[in-house]
Amino acid sequence: MDDDLEVKGPGYDPIADEFATYEDYLDSQINGTDVYYLEDVELARQLVELGIRGNGEVIRREEFEARKEASEAARQARLNKKPKKLAGQGKHVEEFPLLQGKHVEEFPLLQALKDREEAVRNGKLTTIVFIRDKNSKGQEVSGYIDYGHRLKTENCEPYFDRKKRLMPRPSDLSFYNWETQMSTSNPTPNFQVIADNEAGLLFKNKRDRKVINVDPTAKPGDNSTRTELETAEYAQVVVYDHVTRRRS
């Protein structure tokens, strides 16, 4: 039965799904000999329902109806279940060919985020985005953004639609306003912030406890990569990717 459940999917009931009616179920317990000697199908069904005839324990009509209803509800749930739409799905941020045979990415940060979104959402990847640029007040700000945390806590489609700009906030992993000298740091469900360290600013992944070093002169750490993007959208963008592995 375990194999049947795996093939049919969650919510599959081998009795409720196989038989359209309770009478069909009872008929499956009746053999040719029963019909021959009893000469009455209804009588044979009654004997099966009473447990006098049949193959093994027979479920009652009420239980059959309840299982039938539950099976139908599970089937409808499977039909109605839709995969979560990715924020970047269908958004046109890809690279465009030039006449000289070269390619240019019109929105390299958005392309990088789109490429990583599915892996970040399913937990295979954690990504930190460093952005330095001027805010709406003309002040230079910089910060480290936990991409996965942003995906879970806000609707990111406006970024991919280019209706909003992804910018650091005081609520992100790390934030600094170069004009006001305001500085903040905050842990997220994915990362712990390690500040005031001789190595500089570090982020510890809460899943596998690996540390990401954002110092550009140092290695980013185990299972981590550092990618600086060439873009006209921001003064500076660096993407840190960490392949997460749960500790054994």
UniProtKB/TrEMBL annotation:
Task: Provide the alphabetized UniProt keywords.
Answer: Cytoplasm, Nucleus
Principal place of residence: cytoplasm
Instruction: Extract the InterPro entries matched here.
Output: DUF4464
Localized where?
Answer: Cytoplasm; Nucleus
**Short name of one Pfam family for this protein?**
DUF4464
Q: Signal peptide location in the record?
A: none
Which Gene Ontology cellular-component terms appear in the entry? cytoplasm; nucleus
Show the stretches that span the lipid bilayer: none
Please explain the role this protein plays, according to its UniProt record: May be involved in spermatogenesis.
Protein name, UniProt field:
Cilia- and flagella-associated protein 299
**Which organism encodes this protein?**
Chlamydomonas incerta
Q: What is the lineage of its organism?
A: Eukaryota, Viridiplantae, Chlorophyta, core chlorophytes, Chlorophyceae
